[in-house]
Amino acid sequence: MKTCRKYLTHVQKSVFEGDITDGQGVLLRREIEAIVDADRDFVIFYSMQDGSRLNRDIITATRDPTDNFL
Hints:
two-stranded antiparallel sheet
């Protein structure tokens, strides 16, 4: 939570959002990867590069709990 708050705004529980540069995104991702347990935690980075297309990047090895949604 402390790491995410350095870059983003805390929205609810484990949800953070904000407008950050690509460089800040790289730093945030590195810091998160160093902290989380990739086999137990579930982390998704959402980004909108061009302002319209949503990119979804799961950075942990846990099963996606939303993989059964249409």
